[in-house]
Amino acid sequence: MPKVFSKPADLLNEVGTTLGPTDWITIDQERINQFADATGDHQWIHVDPERAREGPFGATIAHGYLTLSLASLFLPQMIEVQGVKMGINVGLDKVRFTNPVRVNSRIRGRGEIIDVSEIKGAIQSVVRITVEIDGEERPACIADTISRYYPE
User: Fold this and answer.
1) How many Cβ atoms are within 10 Å of 141's Cβ, its own excluded?
2) Domain holding 18: CATH number?
3) What is the dihedral of CA 26, 29, 34, 40, to 10 degrees?
4) Number of folded domains in the chain?
5) Exposure string for 33-55, b = 16+ CB within 10 A, e = fewer
6) 42 lies in a domain?
7) Residue 104 counted as domain residue
8) pLDDT tens track, the chain, 152 positions
């Protein structure tokens, strides 16, 4: 269940608030192949299970950008800001891929609000999303996502 804020201004005193974790999702070969098709990145480490078995990870791995793109899935599972006429994904600050996601691994998101400010009639928040891999000590990805919420 997401942490719910009734209006954007309610975020202003929430730096340090933890969010999540989200539900686990399995990164199967079909999802990896679909991402490869969508982006044109068909490198063998992602799409050739036989060759990847002999590679450095012993299996195919998800594209780093596939893992990062799942922030769009995880963020609404962690935070809901109500009383908004419009919300904008402003972008990302620091992004790091710290561990490969092997095919059939389960991942989930965990978050922390690390900054909130007022910007041109809106409230801007930075949520650090950590993408965890089930059974792994190191996360797959850590990314600071920037969202802007325009109140009603």
Assistant:
1) 25
2) 3.10.129.10
3) 130
4) 1
5) eebbeeeeeeeebbbeeeebeee
6) no
7) yes
8) 999 999 999 999 999 999 999 999 999 999 999 999 999 999 999 999 999 999 999 999 999 999 999 999 999 999 999 999 999 999 999 999 999 999 999 999 999 999 999 998 999 999 999 999 999 999 999 999 999 999 99
Domain that holds residue 87: 3-25+62-151
Helices and strands (H, E) in the chain, number of each type: 5, 8
DSSP state of 13: G
Q: Does residue 144 come out as left (phi exceeding 0), alpha (psi in the -120 to 50 range) or beta?
A: beta
Cα 50–chain centre separation: 29
Residue 43, domain member (yes or no): no
